[in-house]
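In the current project phase, we have settled on a layout for protein records. A sample record is reproduced below.
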Amino acid sequence: MKKTLMFSALAAATLTGNALAQNAPVRDNGFSYTYGQLGYDRWDYDNGLDVDALTAEGAFALDEHVFLRGGVSFYDGDYNRSRWDDDVDGHRMYIGAGMHTPLNRGLDLELMGDVIYDDNDFDDEMGYALRAGLRHRTLDMVELSGGVVYEDIYDDQFGVYGQGLLNITPAVDVGARITLADDVDTFGVFGRYNF
């Protein structure tokens, strides 16, 4: 009888401890917010402009919740309209900041804001973008993130975004991303190095 009671008490303590550990506040999910990456993106605009862009981006964690981010894209595009075709080349730069906080084990809330400068053959403009979303460690080697985005440059755009990361090594990831907005859809692939 004593052995049964001791075993029951030990099992209850173990289960209670595991439940408390799972519900305990999460301080850090171990996501990397300090990295550099290179990628290729395709921007498809509703007005007939199709753009190929090469992009270099990076982020730097200032502390456990705040990070800086920035990037530059060099692009080449073609207008395919019924009456005429034309070519457009340009570059786009952005700099911004973000914050993240754990909501649960393996799940972060992310908020980001960027100032954007775009310069091409026809025009140049300064604008901004705001993002709010979630980042989730779905499997040991897979992270998924997604949310909503609002961008105001040339025209305002509201949409949704998604991204997947495959952790090849602790330092190297490969990923794919998509944004579906009012007047433009973007698709991209990239390689990332985590510092």
Observations:
- The beta strands are 35-45, 49-61, 66-80, 85-104, 107-120, 124-139, 142-153, 155-167, 172-181, 184-194.
- Confidence is low (pLDDT under 50) at residues 1-22.
